[in-house]
Design brief:
The chain has 449 residues and is α/β, with parallel strands linked by helices. It folds into three domains: 237 residues, 4-Layer Sandwich (Metallo-beta-lactamase, Chain A), CATH 3.60.15.10; 95 residues, Rhodanese-like domain (Oxidized Rhodanese, domain 1, 3-Layer(aba) Sandwich), CATH 3.40.250.10; 88 residues, Rhodanese-like domain (Oxidized Rhodanese, domain 1, 3-Layer(aba) Sandwich). Helices cover 29% and strands 23% of the residues.
């Protein structure tokens, strides 16, 4: 038996490829693109026999249905009520994996139907796939179902971990799905895996003196999350479109075709690096640079049903932008401007620019901090106004008039913010290149929010 983590750094999640020792494999919480799992299975000369789900995911489209199309059996909580063939499991259910046993443990909290899974070898527990029930340094959030269920689920989470995992040994390796960088997680540290004993020493789920104390602290620490989280559970329940290992390609669009798409309501995303966007971009473009976090901001800021057209740089990975879009359910990808901005300019069409300012430059007007609240709380530029990027469109009318210098940690999110405000009609915008880190490295003077 061997467990191989496959980490999605952008969404902050891990799936696990488990070699069962008999020529078969199991994949835990697979993401939509089956290629990494199928490629690994081919290299190891194994057959993927099972796709295991801990819960209905809110932050990505599950790949279990893709693996089922390749012959795998889906194992999932019975209460998830999947609209596809699957083996439904409930608390205490066991699955014979040919020498290994998988035991389901009801661990509601992050989701009502949540199951953790204990892998047992010769009556000895050897691994716990904890999904969102227990993470290194934290747990997964409980506010993705409804406001009315947020506190009851937090209390369920406390009882799930303190009672259901109580008899398991400290040495037991723990393999969570959510982790650092995931908007599903709360207070998770940078580790991707841990042991049960390590979490018993420091995790807030074990450190709290009682259920009430845990609920108060946990609920106070819930930050914002992308709006697309509210619809993916339903999509994962009913099942998404199958693509197999061959992802669709972005269709190249001539300038004329591209302009027709814009005229009929397509959303324009410029995925080039933010300095390229600053140097010249099409009016109304939304700057979301192609990087690991692309999918999160796409899902947070862009309506899911409108067609999307892209402006890309010549060396950017088209397959990656398609993969990241599809993994959160964005299917209406109408194409990209063939030739990019050079073709747009050659046609003599208008473009806009946004000023970049360095940490040594005088900031123009009001500094606008668009980082998450947890980042802002650790320090900010004196005199700054704070609005999280995900809330910026709603808050645009409340911003002070006059010039703004926008900053985030490095610069990508601040350019996205500048593009949103520019589309709202704001002018005199600048972006702090290098962001808050560059400012503190050069200036050293911060305020505490």
């Amino acid at each position: 038996m061997n467990i191989v983590p496959l980490v999605d750094e952008g969404l902050g999640n891990s799936s696990y490829f488990v070699s069962l020792g008999d020529g078969r494999a199991l994949v835990v919480d697979p993401s939509r693109d089956p290629s990494p799992y199928l490629d690994l299975a081919r290299r190891l000369e194994l057959r993927i026999a099972f796709a295991l789900e801990t819960h209905l995911h809110a932050d990505f489209i599950s790949g279990s249905r893709e693996l089922a199309a390749q012959g795998a059996t889906i194992l999932a909580p019975r209460a998830s009520q999947l609209a596809m063939p699957y083996q439904g499991l409930a608390d205490g259910a066991e699955v014979d994996l040919g020498g290994l046993t998988l035991q389901a443990l009801a661990t509601p909290g992050h989701a009502p139907e949540h199951l953790a899974y204990l892998l047992i070898d010769d009556a000895r527990p050897v691994a716990l796939f904890s999904g969102g029930a227990l993470l290194p340094g934290g747990a997964a959030r409980t506010d993705l179902i409804s406001a009315a269920q947020t506190e009851p689920l937090a209390r369920d989470l406390y009882r799930s971990v303190r009672q259901r995992l109580n008899a398991l040994p400290d040495s037991l390796p723990l393999f969570p799905t959510h982790g650092a960088g995931s908007f599903c997680s709360t207070a998770a540290d940078g580790r991707r895996t841990t042991t049960l004993g390590r979490e018993r020493e420091a995790n807030p789920l074990f450190a709290a003196v009682d259920e009430d104390a845990f609920a108060r602290t946990f609920l106070a620490g819930l930050g914002s999350y992308p709006s697309y989280f509210l619809r993916l559970r339903s999509i994962n329940r009913r099942g998404s479109r199958l693509y197999g290992s061959t992802l669709p390609e972005l269709r190249p669009l001539s300038v004329e075709e591209f302009r027709k798409q814009l005229a009929t309501g397509a959303t324009l995303i410029d995925a080039r690096p933010f300095p390229d966007f600053a140097g010249g971009h099409i009016d109304g473009a939304l700057a979301i640079g192609l990087r690991p976090a692309f999918a999160s901001w796409l899902g947070w800021l862009v309506p899911e049903n409108r067609p999307i057209v892209f402006v890309l740089g010549p060396d950017q990975d088209r397959r990656d932008i398609v993969r990241q879009s599809l993994k959160i359910g964005y299917e209406n990808l109408a194409g990209e401007l063939e030739g990019g901005m050079s073709v747009w300019r050659a046609a003599g069409l208008p473009e806009s620019t946004i000023e970049l300012r360095g940490a040594d430059d005088e900031l123009q007007g009001t500094p606008l901090d668009v980082r998450q609240a947890s980042e802002w709380a650790l320090g900010d530029i004196p005199g700054a106004r704070h609005v999280e990027l995900g809330s910026l469109t709603r808050a645009a009318a409340t911003l002070p008039p006059g010039p703004l210098t926008i900053y985030c940690r490095h610069g990508d999110r601040s350019m996205t913010a500048a593009s949103l405000l520019e589309a709202e009609g704001r002018r005199n915008l600048a972006v702090l290149e290098g962001g808050f880190e560059a400012w503190t490295n050069r200036r050293g003077s911060i305020a505490v929010g």
